[in-house]
C-alpha cells in the first residue's frame, strides 16, 4: 500500500538571526577585501575599497532577497523567489566593470580588474547565501589567479611586453626613419604604427606629424635610455611614452 509523505511547511527557513547576518556581511567584507588588496597593490583603478563595497553590497542584496520579505512568507498569494534579486547583481555588475576598462592609445587595460569585480560580486552572493565553503574556495582561487599566476605570466611573457609611444616629428625631415632604425638597433619591434598628417585636429603645426607606435619591447631592460636616444634625433619635436603592458 503506497504511503504519502506530507511535507510540513516551516516558515522559519525565511528568517535569519542578527548574529548570522552580521557574520555573513563581515565575511563578505574580509573576502572581498582580500581580492581588492591585490588590485590595490598593483595600482589598479578599482582597488581595496571598491572590491569591498561590491562584495558586501552583493551579500546584502542576496540576504535581502532570501530573508528580507519573510513577513510575507505565510501569505498564500505570495511566492518567494530567493534568487530573483541575486540574478540582477550578475548582470548589473557588468556596468561597473565596464567603467574600469580603459583604452589608452593603442592599448586596452582594465580587463582583469573588470573580471575581478564580477567575480567578487559572486563571492558576495555566495557568502550572503551562507555558502561559506564555496566562497572561501572561490576567494583562494581568485587570489591565486590574480597574484601568483600574474607573477608567472610576467615571468614567461617577457617577450610580449608592449609600450605605447607618441612622437611629434618634423614632416620634412628623415627623423621617422631614424626613429625606426634606432628602435631596431635596440631590439625593439613595432607592432602598430599610426601616422597623423597636418590635417588632423590633434596637430598643432602644419609642418609636424604625429606618429603613434605600439612597441614590442622583448628583452629590452633599459627602455628609458632608448627614450633619451630617440629624443636626441634631429627632427623629433616631442615624445610621450605610455605605461608598460602585456
UniProtKB/TrEMBL annotation:
TM regions (residue ranges): 16-37, 49-70, 82-99, 131-152
UniProt keyword terms in alphabetical order: Cell membrane, Membrane, Transmembrane, Transmembrane helix
Subcellular location: Cell membrane
Domain MgtC/SapB/SrpB/YhiD N-terminal: 25-154
First-listed, main subcellular location of the protein, grouped into a coarse class: membrane
Signal peptide residues on this chain, from the entry's feature table: none
One Pfam family from the record: MgtC
Membrane topology listed for this record: Multi-pass membrane protein
Family: Belongs to the MgtC/SapB family.
Protein name (Swiss-Prot/TrEMBL): MgtC/SapB family protein
Species in which this protein is naturally found: Paenibacillus artemisiicola
Amino acid at each position: 500500500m503506497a504511503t504519502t509523505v506530507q511535507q510540513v511547511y516551516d516558515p522559519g527557513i525565511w528568517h535569519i538571526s542578527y548574529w548570522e547576518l552580521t557574520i555573513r556581511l563581515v565575511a563578505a567584507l574580509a573576502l572581498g577585501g582580500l581580492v581588492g588588496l591585490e588590485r590595490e597593490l598593483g595600482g589598479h583603478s578599482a582597488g581595496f575599497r571598491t572590491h569591498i563595497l561590491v562584495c558586501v553590497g552583493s551579500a546584502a542584496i542576496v540576504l535581502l532577497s532570501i530573508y528580507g520579505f519573510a513577513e510575507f512568507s505565510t501569505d498564500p498569494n505570495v511566492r518567494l523567489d530567493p534568487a530573483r534579486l541575486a540574478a540582477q547583481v550578475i548582470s548589473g555588475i557588468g556596468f561597473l566593470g565596464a567603467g574600469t576598462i580603459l583604452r589608452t592609445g593603442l592599448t586596452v587595460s582594465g580587463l582583469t580588474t573588470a573580471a575581478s569585480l564580477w567575480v567578487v560580486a559572486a563571492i558576495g552572493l555566495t557568502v550572503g547565501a551562507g555558502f561559506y565553503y564555496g566562497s572561501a574556495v572561490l576567494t583562494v582561487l581568485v587570489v591565486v589567479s590574480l597574484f601568483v599566476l600574474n607573477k608567472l605570466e610576467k615571468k614567461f611573457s617577457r617577450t610580449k611586453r608592449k609600450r605605447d609611444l607618441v612622437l611629434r616629428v618634423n614632416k620634412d625631415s628623415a627623423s621617422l626613419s631614424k626613429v625606426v632604425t634606432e628602435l631596431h638597433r635596440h631590439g625593439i619591434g613595432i607592432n602598430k604604427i599610426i601616422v597623423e598628417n597636418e590635417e588632423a585636429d590633434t596637430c598643432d603645426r602644419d609642418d609636424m606629424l604625429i606618429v603613434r607606435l605600439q612597441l614590442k619591447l622583448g628583452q629590452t631592460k633599459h627602455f628609458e635610455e632608448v627614450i633619451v636616444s630617440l629624443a636626441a634625433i634631429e627632427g623629433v619635436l616631442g615624445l610621450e611614452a605610455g605605461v608598460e603592458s602585456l
